[in-house]
Recover the amino acids of this structure.
């Protein structure tokens, strides 16, 4: 039987909780007196349905039912979890939490999504104070894994079990503090950002670029301390702090209340860093960091955004305006390195990526004969209808490979290509054929190529005939 | 003809510059009196050769030659670019830069990699002060695109042209300031992190987790202000600041020197944000953000790291301990959603990803018959030697698809599977056959399956026979 959660407040954060629970198979009761709440939650759900399932290689559980309740009491009746997501006013939150506690089970996890208030403030005067904790999520709640849990240990452990089941990353915070952990960093960065803008040093765009083309990429995979551990190299974390330490006294930020770097503090950090990352050598961590960065930036390439857009533009430069190839020979279509994210549990390039390389080879061939980005923009393209691949040798991350392509058939809307993929050392890795049809992209139906392309294709096929 | 750059200092940053230039086809002169310099640079080059080419779908230019010079004068003779990467001591940097200027061309771009010093400090008393600028890169220099350029505008523009050619993202900083832009944020976060550790709120591991499972993912693609613009929703950036503003006066960080949020500052930020992101609606930005997050986290899945490791673990939970299927019927092997990063310029799932789905179907089949992770760990697996795919219908991001699999042949080390991929609406999208050989992973050679698996495969094939 499905479990039920209650979400109080249907804004961006509340809507995000609704989406996360519902898409992970929970029923959700929503309470929000705003007559627009259902529309707002639906908008968040639309985004979540588009993206959350795409994170997984398996189908998610059947989506739960979402019920908009008339009263708070009805919403929290008999539920396993409550997310309070009302505006950041302590008195309002206390009133809501009191009413929740009067109407829910003793076993319900009552959580507040507050960015700033401490559990001891929220549960001040409550009937069962230990039942009320902070579970602070990050926007978009349906994608970002982190949830900071603060408060009574037993209740936090119950919360952790539930959040684990939603695919989230619950982080148990040891001691309560204003703004928990993550928002303290966000606040420090925000304050520094305001200074930079006010002083005319940088615009919002320049600040964002400094982050997303720079340390943002590092932080998405290793955070702050592990990044510095790697940067510090074999000399270790204490040595790194020794080097970096003096900057604490320099005006590198306008934010100047700074802890003293005592030996005790340095040792504490170095020991914690050993416990965190000491099972990897610096060389291993460098390799892990680099492969992570490559995989993430390659992900951004697929979206043509940020660091990924930069890489796509550079690919264009590298492919360049090639001279017309000699079509009486096989055509050099691909020349590249195999990235680490193309390999699988067998320690070699996954079979599907051979198909990727041949797909890229067909794209390059089409570009060389004139079916290029402009042609596609005009509403025409080729769709593959049949592929046959013969795998001959393994290939590995870092291997340099190239593809030579030959035209087997070119007749009206039909094009058949033959590809051979070679290792830089000369070994034949793979061969295959691809049968394609020319299509009208608006009709999504096959049609003859535009006259200029048709003529070119026939001429190329004629030249290729000598290859047999 | 290849251009030449000089790098002074062969540490982590200097080595990174050497790698970036050499792998992008420049010759590089290195000067570093440390007898270990060549070994250290070689270690960085090894990492760079493994990762930088993997960012691109095209081969990089032929690698340049790296020459270790006996004197600084020899290193900077006739070069187009100098990177000064000596330790962060102003007097040392000034001495080195003076010697550089005495021995290089007037047209050489002389850049310092300094994290903190301003151009006006570095070029104080120089013969041609405008020739000396800051070009501050980020570790690892061969992968992270950002370089902060500070100093004389004409020299910075020359520097930008060179860095563009290396695939980097040069950011022209409007006014010089201690620590430029990015390191001001890093310093603020570092200071806050020291407090959190000192006060026993969080360990280095917990801080890193709060970053890499949380806002680090956001910052890698949108940075700070665009992220908040999206979070603020249709009400706009000024409204968002209004909500977030009061926190400036709360103790959300120990770093308390805070600019006043005047109307003028709020308007400045809102206007800059409009200029940066105003060409996208909030709905569009939400979709872009979500697709970026999915693509990056899917990238981290391939490395089984951070947010990606969490997703892989959850996939395992979702696949679960399935009951033995009824092998007299076709076997349900895949049930999933198509992610946005699997689509191509034709607006549909790329042909190679159909192969990916069938590859995953074969994995699931093998898992169900007992050739699971444990079996692979024991040193055995299956390699595909031939694949034939017939594409029948298009499929799109967000589509739910499933695969049913049938055994065509199972004989000694040979296994042949037939797959059908269906849309959730029932349409057949694609069918294909895969011919596999059982292999010994240590020998990388075909061999018969282990007795237990061989027996199971024969039994399954027998049951599947009825399917014809």
């Amino acid at each position: 039987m499905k479990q039920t959660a209650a979400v109080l407040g249907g804004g961006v954060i509340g809507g995000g909780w609704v989406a996360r629970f519902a898409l992970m198979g929970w029923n959700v009761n929503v309470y929000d007196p705003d007559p627009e709440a259902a529309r707002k939650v639906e908008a968040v759900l639309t985004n979540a349905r588009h993206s959350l399932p795409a994170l997984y290689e398996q189908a998610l559980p059947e989506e739960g039912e979402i019920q908009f309740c008339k009263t708070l009491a009805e919403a929290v009746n008999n539920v396993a979890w409550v997310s309070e997501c009302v505006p950041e006013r302590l008195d309002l939150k206390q009133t809501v939490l009191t009413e929740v506690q009067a109407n829910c089970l003793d076993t319900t996890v009552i959580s507040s999504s507050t960015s700033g208030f401490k559990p001891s403030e929220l549960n001040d005067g409550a009937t069962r104070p230990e039942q009320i904790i902070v579970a602070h999520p990050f926007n978009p709640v349906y994608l970002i894994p982190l949830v900071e849990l603060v408060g009574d240990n037993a209740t936090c452990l119950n919360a952790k079990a539930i959040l684990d089941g939603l695919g989230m990353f619950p982080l148990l915070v040891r001691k309560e503090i204003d703004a928990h952990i993550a928002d303290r960093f966000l606040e420090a960065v925000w304050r520094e950002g305001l200074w930079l803008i006010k002083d005319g040093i940088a615009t919002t765009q320049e600040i964002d670029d400094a982050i997303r083309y720079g340390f943002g990429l590092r932080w998405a995979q290793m955070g702050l301390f592990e990044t510095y551990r790697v940067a510090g190299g074999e000399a270790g974390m204490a040595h790194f702090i020794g080097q970096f330490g003096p900057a604490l006294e320099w005006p590198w930020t306008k934010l100047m209340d700074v802890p003293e770097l005592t030996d005790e503090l340095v040792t504490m950090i170095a020991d914690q860093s050993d416990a965190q990352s000491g099972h990897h050598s610096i060389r291993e961590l460098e390799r892990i960091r680099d492969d992570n960065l490559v995989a993430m930036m390659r992900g951004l390439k697929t979206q043509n955004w940020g660091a990924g857009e930069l890489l796509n533009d550079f690919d264009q430069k590298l492919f360049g305006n090639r001279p017309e190839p000699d079509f009486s020979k096989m055509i050099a279509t691909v020349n590249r390195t195999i990235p680490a994210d193309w390999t699988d549990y067998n320690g070699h390039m996954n079979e599907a990526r051979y198909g990727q390389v041949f797909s890229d080879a067909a794209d390059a061939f089409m570009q060389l004969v004139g079916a290029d980005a402009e042609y596609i923009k005009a509403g025409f393209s080729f769709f593959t209808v049949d592929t046959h691949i013969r795998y001959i040798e393994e290939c590995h991350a870092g291997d340099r490979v190239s593809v030579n392509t030959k035209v087997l058939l070119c007749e009206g809307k039909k094009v058949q290509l033959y590809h051979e993929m070679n290792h830089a050392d000369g070994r034949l890795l793979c061969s295959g054929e691809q049968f394609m049809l020319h299509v009208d992209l608006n009709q999504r139906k096959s049609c003859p190529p535009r006259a200029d392309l048709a003529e070119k294709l026939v001429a190329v096929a004629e030249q290729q005939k000598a290859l047999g």
Observations:
- Residues 321-467 of chain A form a domain with the Thiol Ester Dehydrase; Chain A fold (CATH 3.10.129.10).
- Chain A is about 45% helix and 20% strand.
- Chain A touches chain B through 169 residues (CB under 8 Å).
- Residues 178 and 326 of chain A are 69 Å apart (CA to CA).
